[in-house]
Specification:
Largest sheet: 5 strands, mixed
Number of domains: 4
Radius of gyration: 37 Å
Shape: elongated
Order of helices and strands: HHHHHHEEEHEHEHHHEEEEEEEEE
Distance between the termini: 108 Å
Strand order of the largest sheet: 3-2-1-4-5
Length: 416
């Protein structure tokens, strides 16, 4: 007869039931000792009388559970992770890719298997150091979008790129994302120009205090008019800009980049994406639709709070999304900007006086426009710094002046 090896608790149970059968203790005392009801004790007594020590052992002991992972599936999972492109996959992401290959597993089952096979190390959990108040989502799509840039080796080629992305606060939907070289003003302007033409103007933008978005000079705290190019553009578009005081305040977009750095990098690796252009095409055509389907949630209300852009505003977008600087008209009607000199033409659509302050727009197409109030001035770029001369004309107007400039004056010369 096969010897049954009992655990300590099973042995104690067997001895108690055996003593009860032999009449050494009563059913009531045995039930109290084992913490069982009398009717369950009586069932144990009958089982021990019939099967001996086996009577106190659960019948499923030593048997494989019906939902155990088979050796065949385990070998397939191990071979999946042996491939170099899959070695850093986490349990959830790996479960999705295994499911597409016909291997269906619960993510938690896969996680335990990965830990057992030393394919994954569980991360220690740390409680929050600061208790923060949870802010409810906005109710409407477009009411608030969180915006940020993330520098990362997105294509795993040793070169960092900046991913600019917006996530809607009400739905958790990635509204727009694009890869750029940096988070400078030109890159940000290109991003928001594309965004506004596609979706309209959101009510508010939630972002950090990076120098592109906010002037952080302590001495400029009380100067409310001192604003960045981005703040000036958003003001013209009637979009409210909210600067967060901590990363946790705009945690939705911060967590988004954590997800993208994990999932999207692997997706682009599997799709063999090598260039920035291919990455931008991939993220819009393939990744974002799938990501939003998985992780976005319905808004409380169905209203889209994005405001459409009028034809007049659309025509002004090149000027709005330009780097604007203020300069003064000199006595010879020239303007100095950086290392260049510009000569205003002798006839203009509006009156231009000496010492007038004009706005110089550096547009995204690398052209320069000079504006006085709402009128753009005609000008020529001089090849070098002009000689100082005082032009005896009170103002440039639509009529050609009577004064005749000398032969060497720029107005009489043709140049690029």
């Amino acid at each position: 007869m096969e010897e049954i090896k009992l655990t300590a608790s099973e042995q104690e149970r067997y001895d108690t039931v055996r003593s009860c059968i032999d009449g050494e203790i009563t059913n009531k005392d045995a039930s109290i000792r084992l913490g069982l009801k009398i009717r369950w004790l009586q069932m144990l007594k009958r089982s021990v009388e019939k099967n001996g020590k086996k009577g106190v052992v659960h019948k499923s002991k030593g048997q494989a559970p019906p939902n155990v992972t088979s050796d065949t599936v385990t070998l397939k999972v191990v071979s999946f992770f042996e491939q170099k492109k899959h070695q850093d996959f986490g349990p959830t992401f790996a479960q999705e890719k295994l499911a597409s290959a016909g291997i269906v597993m619960n993510p938690e089952t896969l996680r335990l298997l990965m830990i057992k096979k030393d394919l994954w190390k569980s991360k220690p959990r740390h409680g929050p150091q600061i208790v923060r108040e949870w802010r409810e989502r906005k109710e409407n799509f477009g009411e608030l979008v969180q915006f940020d840039g993330s520098y990362h080796e997105w294509l795993e080629d040793g070169h960092e790129r900046c991913l600019l992305a917006t996530i809607d606060d009400a739905t958790g939907k990635i509204v727009h994302a694009i890869f750029e070289d940096n988070e400078g003003v030109h890159s940000v302007f290109r991003f928001w120009w594309t965004y506004i033409e596609a979706y309209g103007r959101p009510v508010a933008i939630y972002l950090d205090k990076f120098s592109t978005y906010k002037i952080n000079c302590k001495s400029a705290v009380d100067n409310k008019e001192l604003m960045t190019q981005f703040q000036r553009a958003m003001k013209e578009l009637d979009i409210r800009v909210i600067c967060a005081n901590s990363p946790e305040a705009k945690g939705r977009v911060e967590r988004l980049f954590g997800t993208l750095q994990d999932r999207m990098v692997k997706e682009m690796r599997l799709a063999d994406i090598k260039t920035t252009d291919d990455a931008n095409r991939f993220i819009h055509e393939e990744y974002l639709p799938d990501h939003n389907r998985r992780f976005s949630v319905p808004a409380k209300k169905v209203t889209d709070m994005h405001r459409p852009i009028s034809d007049d505003l659309r025509a002004r977008l090149p000027a709005i999304f330009s780097v604007q600087s203020r300069r003064m008209v000199h006595n010879d009607y020239t303007i100095q900007f950086k290392n260049s000199w510009f000569q205003l033409e002798s006839t203009q659509k509006t009156a231009v006086y000496k010492r007038d302050e004009v706005t110089i727009e550096e547009r995204l197409d690398d052209t320069i426009h000079i504006r006085l109030k709402d009128v753009y001035l005609k000008y020529r770029e001089l090849p070098e710094r002009p000689k100082k001369i005082r032009v005896p004309i009170a103002a440039l107007t639509a009529r050609k002046p009577n004064w005749r400039p000398p032969t060497d004056h720029p107005w009489k010369k043709k140049f690029l």
